[in-house]
Amino acid sequence: MLHLLGAGVAVSALPLGEQAMAGPFAAEDSSEHLIPADKKLTPKWVNTLTDRGQAEVFSGDQLKYIGMPVGGIGCGQLYLGGDGRLWLWDIFKCNYEREKDHGQRIAAFTLGGHYAHPVAQGEQYTNRNGADVQQGFLIRTNAGTRTLDRQGFPGVTFRGEYPVGKVTYVDPEFPVTIELEAFSPFIPLNAKDSALPATVMSFTVTNTTDASVEVDLGGWMQNATCPYTTDASLGQRKNQCVKSEGRVSVLGSAEGNGLKSKHGYGSTTLSLLHDPVKEAGITISSATSLTDPDSPEGLFAQMGGLDSQATSKPMDELLVGGLAARFDLQPGESKTVDFAITWYFPDYNEKGKGRKHMRSLREFTKLRRHYAAWFDSADEVAGYLSENKQRLLGGTRDWNRTWYDSTLPFWLLDRSFIPIDCMATQTFHWFDNGRPFGWEGVDCCPGTCTHVWHYAQALGRVFPEIERAFREMVDFKDGIGFHPDTGIIGHRGELHATPAIDGQAGTILRAYREHQMSSDSALLKQIWPNVKKAIEFLIRQDGDGNGLLEGKQQHTLDASWHGPMGWLSGMYLAALASGEAMALEMGDPEFATQCRTIIDRGSKSIIAEVFDGEYFIHKPDPTVRALNSNKGCHVDQVLGQAWMKQVGLGRVIPKQETVAALNSLWKYNFAPDAGQYALDHIQIEKAFRWYAMPGEAGLLMCTWPTGGATEAVPGDHLRTKENPPVYTGPGGYFNECMNGFEYQVAAHMIYEGEPNSQLVQRGLAIAKAVHERYGAEKRNPYNEIECGDHYARSMASYGVFLAACGFEYHGPKGQLGFAPRISPADFKAPFIAAEGWGSFAQKVVDGRQSVSIELRYGELALNEFTLDQVAGTAASRAVVVVDGKEIAADLQIQEGRYVVRFPNGLSLKAGQKMEARYV
């Protein structure tokens, strides 16, 4: 990739992966604000944006930073390393007792934390209450014993397809190959079964020789209860072998009068899941205590039969147990052995302990993790996993196959889904009373912040029941997030009662999205009175009713801006549009008309007042000294219209001006060397955080192509006793690249562009720039960082996928639609509806368009199916077939869209397929 120095000196392009993205550049290519208008993207790199490409497989030094979360959602944090080892065991409790590390955390926040300083497997991970746990797997054949890691197999490779990590161990000198699939059960629309404190380690061993091979495959694991104490007076750790139908487990527990939740009191298991019929020929052995787990050669010798004797050791001694499977493989034969690690640490901490944010949120002191309502021990978790093995493991693999059974590029499928892994980290918590709770990033900024989480499109589409719980139990719950006397949605639940304008509007839009992702109107009926009050609060902020907000407007850049702007007024108008739609469905036409009247005014006012001919600006109140973007080109200037696309509504900002603004963001804000821009652009503040290093591309938060940067941030020179400083955040955040913002712009460009157009290409380029910033050779591809690790706003990436599909859905109305933006003549991608998921495919042959919907999970009820008409096709009727039988279908063509209505309805169940030909 290119590297533009401050003086505009040209240097050679630096490669990103195998492709050079852009350049070369000369001094005259750099404008005054250091961003070339012509990005000089290389044709080879541009082709990678839409080509299917190859799945990324990592090896060698690319493995060192890999840490894919492989625990259940809300169950803590457990990483799968690039060589198949497990690390960062942060599953025991929430991170309370870190006041001493607070300064270090703030320093890491300011400098970019683990983005600038990635942590390699085996290194100390700062600011974690995780414990080191001795654990691993190994294999023995007549060629010797090897650990299943990089030491045992230096040529090990890793392929990440979240939620499944795939590790391959191959050595020409070894008679078998081993393929590991590691994951926690993950089935969209089934949050409970995707939130198990369990990690499956599924090994498939294949004989690659022409002779039979005897194989021992085993694993060992430390009893990880009470990981924070070595005080022998508190009690003992105990291992025992548990044999049940379909599994053998080494159950680790602890006993003693002095044990409390703060010690990590609970239980763990290492289990071998087996089917006595399907897995005949496998002999299982165990040991509840291994004297030398660090000696692979001697480990199998310590396992014989099934150890029925429980073993106990004092707290100051290590207690490690193991399990092994023995089987024979004929030439070319394969066998799969499923191990599982389960845990049970449901208590966060003792009452009254920990940081002030935790103390003020009573749930962390009086409630427990969600799985405490389902299980009483890790052994029960293992039992549930064993009893439902086929459904849980099979369902996860079905989803994995469905997601990648697509014509979309591998990089796009990878990157658009990866950020939902934050749900399987300490970013997200789910309490045993059903309430969900989220930080912004791991242990960073509590309260499921409305102005961050409203960007996150993934959760509401993949696990809509959790987002519905957020709306029901937090945002529109009296006494928690909602204030019925004012209509304010506290932007951090009960922690902060003040509103954030963008978060308030975004949460109203989310209420409509959650309604769409439901099978009926029950949710909307329940929350509508408070949703309406929340909209009325926004209307009251628009004193003259012109559709523009002009007063104090608090927002996600940790500041309040004053005066009208495209960003927050656009969000206000989008919230009104969703309010109009909900009001009509709730039988409140008067309120719908009120919303529509303001929208119509605002759509004109926003152009007349804050569109400068190229993009939407901010007109700060000259009487108020505060942070502002004034004439700057700001990343979120048309976010309201982007939200309209995500929920399938019309327009609140006219298309011509919207597209002009998006093209301006490309021209003025997309920097092929965004990191160097942060170094060189010091008009605002010298402080910055690293989210793009020199030589890395990205979309900057705000630039000033026509001046105004020095007026944006009132600096230290304005501080007086009478005029106190204004908190701006590091650099006002303006010179940064933050993934969630970039994703929403990328998605919006793709939605607004015609198929295969330049605007679609630009959106994909922005998303791929993020993907390449998280290349495995530089940092952990599975940890997108903003203010903290695994940052929730990055779940906006799923919106890029939805845009590529042109996905629209309304469950209660039974409406489903697609408008593919990438190669629509030959397109295939997964989809998730309210009650089922599957695969959508579209082809054009001889000027005729045909589609199919194959349902692979749950059910799908439709009254209407809509498609964009592919250029060059024509039709006068639709022939729709289900299970070989034609069903009644009426076709209308509306503004270039095929609209098929089913007068008798259409209902699909898993395994069924709908096919439609437009003739």
UniProtKB/TrEMBL annotation:
InterPro entries the record matches: 6-hairpin_glycosidase_sf, 6hp_glycosidase-like_sf, GH116_catalytic, GH116_N, Non-lysos_glucosylceramidase
A GO term, aspect molecular function: beta-glucosidase activity
Domain Glycosyl-hydrolase family 116 catalytic region positions: 502-799
Domain Glycosyl-hydrolase family 116 N-terminal, chain residue ranges per copy: 67-391
Any one of the GO BP annotations: carbohydrate metabolic process
Designated name of the protein: Glucosylceramidase
